[in-house]
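hi! just following up on the protien thing from before. the input was this:
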Amino acid sequence: MMLSGCLYSLIPEGAEPRPSTTNEPDTEGVAAELLPFYEQTLEWTECDGGAAAGFDCAYVTAPLDWENPSDGATMELSIVRHQATGTPMGSLLTNPGGPGGSGRGFILDSLDYAVGADLIENYDVIGFDPRGVGDSSAVSCFDAANMDKYLYDIPTAARGTDAWEAELTKADQAFADACEANSNGILPYITTVNSARDMDLIRAVLGDKQLNYLGYSYGTFLGATYAELYPEKAGRLVLDGAIDPAVPGLEVGATQAIGFEAALRAYMQDCLDSGSCPFNGTVDEAMADLGALLASVDRTPLKNDDGRMLGADSLMTAIIAALYSADSWDFLTQALDETLQGDPYSAFYLADFYNEREDGVYLSNSSEAFTAYNCMDYPVEDDQAAEDATMAKIEAAAPTIAPYWSGPDTCAVWPYPPTGTRGAIHAEGAGPILVVGTTNDPATPYEWSVSLAEQLEEGVLITRVGEGHTGYNKGNTCVDEAVEAYFLDDAVPEADLECS
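and the predicted 3d structure came back as:
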């Protein structure tokens, strides 16, 4: 059942408040072999680059292999803290998604985007680079020149042919080999389960008895995994833009393709209504013209000032980058207009933004970490009939995107077999968990948020009616008030909540 408006049931009178921070490591119930990790004291220092007042940084040492923590091999986890501007209620751990997004950079560079003002006042906001990411012990694969070739070079063989598949597989193999050679043996341990265990360690060394957590996109899977592993330690968890943990990899790809097609159609309607769109006619006619543009640059790529060639795959990356937020639609219009005129500059700008590339430099290892996590988290699906059926589904429901959505699976040549499983997460005993879903979210389609809220023993769904990826702190007062009342007052909506 969904309600319009914002109704809450406060914590029952006389109930014990959830414990806050003790400023001492929490070692309650910790196995003896893990005590050296849980008892460590953090050394906070000024963050590199002289961050603004209120930020400090530290490193947490975690076992490389949580199944064998006594072998001496460790990982370094980079964390940043923005101390509460008022009286702190404890720590609020955050994750921006990915997998592969830098939580350290998320908080250092965009604190106000990550969390609202009331949470900044009342919580020590914590960002962290998960294992394998950024400033933590990181996956490392290609240098910038080779990453450019891997992400932007256009295959010489015709799309869809056996030679095309072989060319892409060869590139994937070179990438996987480089990741194995340059990552200091950490690849088998770059998993969401291990990262969730790292989060419990971070919670404990911060002195929090329970984890308060705000996770976006992939961060919802990380947070749900934490609640499944440590339900008694799960405090107030908000999972925004949910991934459905029960959906297999093939279906994930199909659902996202269909989601981006729907977002693209919404963009196209807005573009046509604006009076300054490079396309004309109905949405169907404009989408057909966009499909023709993609096919044109696939046949005849456009040369950029830096020598790179814009083909259909890079143009599709640019389109997808802009569909994450309606705020980027004007940039997409400019990029498509210029591309129609033979100028790929703005399209490359958007594609580079997606790949976190600036002036030929990759600002993060997000692409490497993304692959490393997904290849370990998702079981191999080697069923040609299922692949064919999935592709047929995409072609029927996402005809504009479909031609550029297929290709060999990088994980088929990954040096380690996956250890993850796909299945419902219930988090029994964890207490209420808020799941935020946006109705036309292209990256994490709304149906996934609905499903996760239903799976969780005490999941509560907050629906943001609108466009774009994720829902909290995006200008919807109803969503923001619900999330913040939960974090600040332990107020839980009386039922699933719809926010128009």
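Confidence is low (pLDDT under 50) at residues 1-22.
The chain has 16 helices and 16 strands.
cheers
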